[in-house]
Design brief:
- The chain is of the alpha/beta class.
- The chain contains seven helices and ten strands.
- It has a six-stranded mixed β-sheet, with helices on both faces. The protein has a four-stranded antiparallel β-sheet with strand order 2-1-4-5, with helices on one face.
- It is globular.
């Protein structure tokens, strides 16, 4: 990818959900190493934007690129390759509860084409160390706290060394102190790995504590907020 090009660039894109227009004429750019908040009321289109970026919602007008993928021309068979280049962190962690932390991460690696067991083990150790969970690899998800489960979810998002992480309310189910720890982790990943992060949040206290660009969704539009 040309480093001079935005990682995400939408220009005049209408975003719909089940046939209903949610966001009209969306135009955004997110560059390598940027941290951007996406905020707005429930139902204002934030998650629909995330779904569009990962190829779940089709793009039918305007222009939209994510990394080297043209979303208007995106074929179904290309979607897994698009998603390998994007890390996603969810509010409810979405870990597989019937297997260990290590096996959760191994499942993702296998499903994205990794085959060498030694390389997989080394990569899992690397990402768990990055998020401070290297001693919890053999724990089951129910044996660790919510904050620790979210750290594992962040580790999962890092497995394929993405240039972009999409974080959908990653602190929404956490107490303030734990949320602050996850926020510091995401900001460190953004700063030291230069990973671009687009984070959905309703938590304006976090936005004030960790200022960055803010996109606000309201009235079928999504615009940058001038702070």
């Amino acid at each position: 990818m040309d480093n001079n090009l935005p990682l995400i660039k939408f220009d005049g894109v209408d975003i719909s959900n089940e046939g209903m227009l949610i966001i009209s004429s969306l135009s955004i750019e997110i560059n390598e190493g940027e941290f951007v908040y996406l905020t707005g009321k429930v139902g204002s289109g934030k998650t629909s934007i995330i779904r569009t970026i990962i190829g779940e919602n089709p793009v039918t007008n305007g222009s939209a690129r994510v990394n080297n993928f043209d979303l208007l021309k995106l074929k179904r068979k290309q979607i897994p390759y698009l998603r390998r280049e994007i890390g996603v962190v969810f509010q409810d962690f979405q870990l597989l509860m019937d297997r260990s932390v290590e096996d959760n991460l191994k499942f993702v690696l296998k499903s994205t084409g990794w085959k060498d067991s030694k390389k997989m083990s080394a990569r899992i150790t690397d990402v768990l160390t990055e998020v401070g969970m290297e001693t919890k690899a053999h724990k089951m998800p129910h044996q660790i706290s919510g904050g620790e489960q979210q750290r594992v979810a962040v580790a999962r998002a890092l497995l394929n060394d993405p240039k972009i992480i999409l974080a959908d309310e990653p602190t929404g189910n956490l107490d303030p102190e734990t949320a602050d720890g996850i926020m510091k982790l995401l900001r460190d990943i953004n700063k030291y790995k230069e990973t671009a992060i687009l984070m959905i949040t309703h938590n304006y206290a976090l936005i004030r504590r960790y200022p960055a660009r803010v996109l606000v969704c309201e009235n079928n539009e999504c615009k940058e907020l001038s702070l």
